Amino acid sequence: MEFFIVGCIIFGWEVLYCMNADVVVIGGGPAGLVAAVSAKKSGAEKVVILEREGELGGILKQCIHNGFGTLLFHKDLTGPEYAERLISDVKEAGVQYFLNTMVISLTEDRKITAVNSEMGIFEIQARSVVLAMGCRERPRGNLLIPGSRPAGVFTAGVAQRFINIDGFLPGREVVILGSGDVGLIMARRFTLEGAKVKAVYEIMSEPGGLKRNIVQCLDDFNIPLFLSHTVVKIHGKERVEGVTVARVDENLKPISRTEKFVKCDTLLLSVGLIPENELSKEAGVRISNLTKGPVCDETMQTNVKGIFACGNVSTVFDLADYVAESGKIAGRFAADFSKGIVRSDNKVNILPGKNVRSIFPEKFSFNGDLTLFLRVAKRFDKRVFVRIVPPGVQEMRMYARPAEMIRIKVPIRKFLNVKGDLTVSVEAAD
């Protein structure tokens, strides 16, 4: 990588190094790793990954359970095994990466300002950028739960890191609020470490995690799941002493006289993920009201030319393999953009229709096959048809659940005569 010593002052910071790159990937998790390799294989010469942690792999490092790689590698791998394969691909491809490096600025013209302990503050002028920063967990402050602020309230991902990486057990009697996949996995993990998981409480009428995790993490360990319940108060001063839970009505409001006190020393929160949008917004990227991530087309390009998004920063995926797939697409088209390949800018909307809660991507520019990810608004236990109109494409699924993503891939040839917006709907087959 070529560096240029400039010694200029930008926004009060002294920038000592500048460099140029064809593709810069922000984030070294599964999406970023696959995007970087894909860009390199697609002809981009200088590909750089910027990762703020001390190791590549992102969240995979602390996900020591299996279930990864069944689609990408056709093997059942643990998170660290999955990460090791992706990191090996990055090294073999000759992708350069900077660890312990925080990106502090991204402009619309793809100028990146970053900082680390070795080079201080430096700049990279990229021909194209791939956003792969992932998500952060929704904290207690978003929930407005009454009570004091005692020790013992953790998000599920933080507790996972404490146990799997740091070797520290955060609590002995645990209540879990929310039935997201990480929370379900941590219910099993706490149990295996000798802690007692009292129950999992979910405010919605449907579980938030995959069916396989409900079975393997709760049913197999006799951990009760209470739907349409939430925590209405946290008790304790120095340490959590218990929580009060209550049923909720159809408007998700607690029902009076249904309160129950549950003794515990730990409250685990698994109440959703928020895409890392700060850099995206700074660069002028439009944020979706549906996915809470950047609005993208089928090439993973945002509304800002040359800036692409993939992985959980764009929408919260169910599977790491889906994350990797979006990274592969983003890397390929980011490389093409860096080489000056001009593609159609004629974008139409992809709109959620009947029984569709969210959809990704939300734009179609007729530049590649359409790989569509959607979530339904209600549960279907029998066969359903997923329809895209126009061109009138439909696919059947044996069931559909709000917590489980539906993936559909439609070849571009199906859209040859389509000019207007697309609408995606899900309807019962019978």
CATH architecture of the largest domain, by name, is: 3-Layer(bba) Sandwich
- How much β-strand is present in the residues? 25-35%
CATH topology of the largest domain: FAD/NAD(P)-binding domain
CATH top level class name of the largest domain: Alpha Beta
- Quaternary structure: single chain
Number of domains: 3
Output mean pLDDT.
Answer: 94
Principal-axis shape: globular
> What is the CA-CA span between the terminal residues?
59 Å
The tally of beta strands, per DSSP, is 26
Gyration radius from CA atoms, angstroms: 23 Å
The main sheet comes to:
8 strands, mixed
CATH superfamily of the largest domain: FAD/NAD(P)-binding domain
Question: Which structural category fits the helices and strands?
Answer: alpha/beta
Q: Runs with pLDDT <50, length 5+?
A: 3-7
The percent range for helix content is 10-25%
Number of helices: 7
